[in-house]
Design brief:
This protein is of the alpha+beta class and about 300 residues long. Helix content is about 20%, strand content about 20%. Bound molecules: 2-oxoglutaric acid (AKG).
Length: about 300
């Protein structure tokens, strides 16, 4: 399904990874991929070890510790986490995997040579009732200047139908972008019942497989997952990327809360142009993390 010895990648330039043409085309037509067993045992060992350490730390964490999203009943003796937030900021293994590792290679193979990282999360979906993720699309949570953002997930353990695998409606990435608000205008983060009834969820493909299986879904795909009815947790490590010339619209949704490593270029170079509403403009450098003086310091060549 993939080859690790490309002369050139899917964009005709050298890359760490190339997808078979049929796999590449399937992502374009369906909006998602499942790559069974894509991540090797050595990486799985590192990632699982990092997860275990953080779960252990969560036992004694204060209720307001933003690293963890506990389920009701979580405690010292019996940790139950819904999610570890922004794992890329918490352990070197998660950072290496997402910022310059197998997930980055895959994002590059799909999106092209210039890639920006957005955020990561580890949805654990604990054994014996770990909560559902209701049907939703991602792009409404963190709008960008285009629809290139995608999320790469890796199951850190074997996942079967009873464990609440992620379900995705094929082709939904080119369809309607739904309103994820309640009738009173408050944010629900999920499709309304009326919209679920017309979103063809009966066609959803539930992505499962052995530990190391990888999911990829475009930000416009309708997706969700059922509660975990099994006696084993379902850890799904997710990381989101976009093309480098796709910019998060700060001030909308979670774009301003995406973590310490958010928005950085992880492959290639920063393009000098940006396209919005079909108009391409040359852009200024990115000063999100750098320092900027003023138009005077720039124009008097006191600053690059
Ligand atoms: O954990 C899952 O099954 C789905 C994750 C997801 O869609 C999300 O966290 O936005």
């Amino acid at each position: 399904m993939t080859t690790t010895e490309p002369t050139t990648g899917n964009y005709g330039v050298p890359m760490a990874l190339a997808l078979e043409p049929a796999t590449f085309d399937r992502y374009a037509s369906d909006g998602y991929l499942l790559l069974p067993g894509h991540v090797d045992a050595a990486w799985l060992g590192r990632l699982n070890e990092a997860m275990r350490r953080l779960v252990d730390e969560s036992r004694t964490a204060e209720p307001d510790d933003r690293r963890f999203d506990p389920e009701p009943g979580h405690g010292v003796d019996k940790p139950r986490l819904r999610r570890i937030n922004s794992p890329v900021d918490l352990d070197a293994a998660f950072a290496a995997f997402a910022l310059d590792g197998p997930a980055t290679d895959l994002a590059e193979a799909i999106l092209g040579p210039n890639i920006r990282f957005h955020h990561s999360k580890l949805n654990i979906k604990w054994a014996d009732g770990g909560e559902e993720v209701k049907w939703h699309q991602d792009i409404q949570f963190w709008p960008h200047t285009d629809f290139s953002p995608l999320t790469i997930g890796v199951y850190l353990d074997d996942v079967d139908d009873d464990m609440g695998p992620m379900g995705i409606v094929p082709g939904s990435h080119t369809g309607e972008l739904y309103d994820l608000r309640n009738p009173d205008g408050s944010w629900s983060g999920s499709l309304s019942e009326t919209d679920v009834a017309r979103a063809s969820i009966e066609r959803a493909d539930y992505l499962k497989g052995p530990a190391g299986s990888v999911t990829v879904h475009n930000c416009c795909c309708v997706h969700g997952s059922a509660p975990n009815r099994s006696s084993r947790s379902r850890p799904l490590l997710l990381q989101t990327y976009s093309r480098a010339d796709s910019y998060p619209l700060l001030g909308v949704g979670t774009n301003g809360k995406a973590g310490e490593n958010a928005h950085q270029l992880v492959r290639g170079t920063l393009p000098l142009t940006l396209t919005v509403q079909g108009r391409t403009m040359p852009t200024a450098p990115d000063w999100y993390r750098g320092s900027y003086g003023s138009i005077f310091t720039v124009q008097q060549q006191e600053q690059d």
